[in-house]
Amino acid sequence: MATTTAAQRREEARVAYDAFLRGCPTNQLLDRLSDKWVSLVVAALSDGPRRYSDLRRKIAGVSPKMLTQTLRALERDGILSRAVTPSVPVRVDYELTPLGRSLAGLLTAVKDWAEEHIEEVHAARERYEALEAQAAQAG
Amino acid sequence: MATTTAAQRREEARVAYDAFLRGCPTNQLLDRLSDKWVSLVVAALSDGPRRYSDLRRKIAGVSPKMLTQTLRALERDGILSRAVTPSVPVRVDYELTPLGRSLAGLLTAVKDWAEEHIEEVHAARERYEALEAQAAQAG
DNA sequence: CTGCATCCGACAGGATACTG
DNA sequence: CAGTATCCTGTCGGATGCAG
Q: Per the database record, which ranges form the HTH hxlR-type domain (chains A, B) (predicted)?
């Protein structure tokens, strides 16, 4: 009964930080990153600091609510920094932290992949729908 | 009136495939990828084919509904393939396509980043909350 | 075993209006 | 300009039951 103990312990340790486990912190972080607005905000900031309204313009279709919410969450997690200039009117700049910049590369890679392979995906989609229609007729 | 035409055309072409634009196909694809279950499924398949119930076990907390839904969407988009073996009981294997494998690298990179930097994020979170409490007291 | 159909609650998130 | 507050709707997604 002791033969697998060591292996089991190792397995458990490995699994402890495995993103697949529910409620695990890494999983939560992955959740946070798997957010539409997060990708877009990080990508928008990847080539330099931007002001709030600047971001709002750049990220078409984002509501002030979601933008603020996303920015706050990312600030909280140390992905970006928020700098307020108390002029009139107020001016707020957002900028990626070093941590954020290390992430930005990965996310823009995904974004670039999407732009590169969109055609392939469309082709696959049409193929799938063609087969589906065919199956419906045969059935 | 013609001085900026060429530049404008270029700009429009660039913008046409910009993931920031709403309703743009690339944006839609980015949406699809920014799904919690998508990351997990792709990651789970990144080291070989798996059966349905195998995936269900590996991805803790996924309901059959969401798993099937995610698998169908990814199959439709040509990210993975579905192979039915008409035995009794039925056996279904899922496997990444070449397209899917090219994506898997990127997504697991993000997952690895999450596992690597979770501590930093936690530290940032605590720092943020400390400042927040301080501000609340000062106010 | 591998799903699909249905119901239903929770909550994400858009629109709008207002404030420092 | 940079948000906050409120309302309200859609839809994501869990639970359950059933079928091939």
A: 24-122
Strand order in the sheet with A80-85: A50-51, A91-96, A80-85
Find out whether B45 and B83 touch, Cβ atoms under 8 Å: no
Q: What is the pTM of this model?
A: 0.86
| Both structure tokens of A136 | 């419906």
The strand pairing partners of A96, in sequence order, are A80
Give B5 to chain A, closest Cα distance, Å: 22
Task: Decide yes or no: CATH 2.60.40.420 for domain B36-138.
Answer: no
Closest CA to B79 of B115, B45, B54: B45
Q: How confident is the model at residue A27 (pLDDT cuts 50, 70, 90)?
A: confident
Q: Where are the domains of chain A?
A: 36-138
Q: What is the DSSP string of B64-75?
A: HHHHHHHHHHHH
Number of H helices, E strands in chain A: 6, 3
Q: Decide if B77 and A35 are in contact by the 8 Å CB cutoff.
A: no
Q: CB of A74 within 8 A of CB of A85?
A: no
Strand C proximal to B49 Cβ, under 7 A:
no
Tens digit of pLDDT for each residue in A62-99? Answer: 999 999 999 999 999 999 999 999 999 999 999 999 99
Which chain A residue has the Cα nearest residue B44? A20
CB contact under 8 A, A121 and B61: no
